[in-house]
């Protein structure tokens, strides 16, 4: 255990399965002695007019999430349901933590969604509907604002806390594999990171993001067409080869470190691939 992390608590939003990058970060932070609060998508009282199929999906998703956390991080790790698209759910989480007397020293935002990627196919941007565009923006970008705001309003986010999100090089480049609509959302996430860093610096709160190597092992990565081929290509072109989940975890811990005076940064953890032309 690292003494500088003693008594620190960090919220992890975005663990989906055992291959999740958010889980790799959570494991490393736990080894440092951090107390974790992990959130997963599930059914809440704020979901209205759900079909039985949708309700079953949400219940199964949350059950799988809690099983993963218990098996990989231990049965004593706190879990909570969270749907970042519902203000009521976000507010309920913040209020729940406030009532428990929780003070968070950091947030890891690893939440993203794009319904234009389905069955190994990604829609061209001109074919994306207004609803699909707004949905990707809501989950993948705006949710960082909504979650951070609620935690601040409930006085759960401690002074000096660190907010960290996960992005990708596709936020600023047209990739060889389709990353169209979600790339636009990730670009928005990075712009939000900069604006929030400016605003929250007055409160001593830091906001940063990490662009990680292409990663096709997770459920989210596996859905992106051509990503497996991109992993192989980037691995051969990167000076150090692709970064590994443990590299991401250590970089995340660095940016989440107590008393670190770094904010508004988009850090590449990609084996040097991003320096290429």
Layout of strands and helices, then pairs:
Elements: E1 9-13, H1 21-32, E2 35-40, H2 52-73, E3 78-81, H3 87-99, E4 104-109, E5 117-118, E6 121-122, H4 130-153, E7 157-167, H5 180-200, E8 206-212, H6 219-222, H7 227-237, H8 245-256, E9 266-269
Parallel strand pairs: 1-2, 1-4, 2-3, 4-7, 7-8, 8-9
Antiparallel strand pairs: 5-6
Helix pairs in contact: 1-8, 3-4, 4-5
Model description:
The chain has one domain: Rossmann fold. It is 43% helix and 17% strand. It is built from eight helices and nine strands. The protein has helices spanning 21-32, 52-73, 87-99, 130-153, 180-200, 219-222, 227-237, 245-256; strands spanning 9-13, 35-40, 78-81, 104-109, 117-118, 121-122, 157-167, 206-212, 266-269. The termini are far apart. The relative contact order is 0.14.
Spell the H/E element sequence: EHEHEHEEEHEHEHHHE
Question: Helix amount, in percent?
Answer: 40-55%
Helical element count? 8
The CATH homologous superfamily: NAD(P)-binding Rossmann-like Domain
Give the CATH topology.
Rossmann fold
Task: Specify the biggest β-sheet.
Answer: 7 strands, parallel
β-strand number: 9
Physical arrangement of strands within the biggest beta sheet: 3-2-1-4-7-8-9
How does the overall form come out from the CA principal axes?
A: globular
Can you tell me the CATH class?
Alpha Beta
Percent in strands: 15-25%
């Amino acid at each position: 255990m690292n003494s500088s992390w003693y008594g620190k608590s960090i919220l992890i939003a975005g663990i989906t399965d055992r291959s999740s990058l958010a889980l790799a970060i959570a494991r490393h932070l736990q080894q440092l002695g951090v107390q974790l609060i992990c959130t997963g998508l599930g059914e809440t009282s704020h979901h209205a007019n759900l079909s039985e199929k949708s309700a079953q999906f949400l219940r199964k998703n949350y059950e799988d999430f809690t099983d993963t956390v218990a098996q990989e991080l231990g049965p004593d790790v706190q879990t909570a349901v969270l749907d970042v698209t519902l203000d009521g759910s976000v507010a309920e989480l913040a209020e729940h933590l406030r009532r428990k007397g929780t003070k968070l020293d950091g947030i890891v935002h690893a939440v993203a969604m794009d319904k234009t990627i389905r069955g190994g196919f990604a829609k061209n941007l001109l074919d994306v509907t207004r609803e699909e565009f707004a949905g990707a923006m809501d989950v993948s970008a705006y949710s960082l604002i909504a979650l951070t705001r609620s935690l601040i309003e409930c006085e759960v986010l401690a002074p000096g806390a660190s907010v960290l999100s996960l992005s990708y090089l596709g936020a600023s480049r047209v990739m060889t594999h389709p990353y169209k609509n979600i790339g636009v959302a990730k670009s928005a996430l990075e712009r939000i990171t900069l604006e929030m860093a400016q605003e929250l610096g007055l409160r001593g709160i830091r906001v940063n993001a990490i662009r990680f190597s292409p990663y096709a092992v997770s459920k989210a990565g596996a859905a992106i067409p051509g990503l497996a081929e991109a992993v192989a290509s980037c691995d051969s072109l990167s000076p150090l080869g692709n970064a590994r989940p443990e590299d991401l975890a250590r970089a995340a811990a660095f940016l989440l470190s107590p008393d670190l005076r770094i904010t508004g940064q988009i850090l590449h953890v990609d084996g040097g691939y991003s320096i290429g032309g």
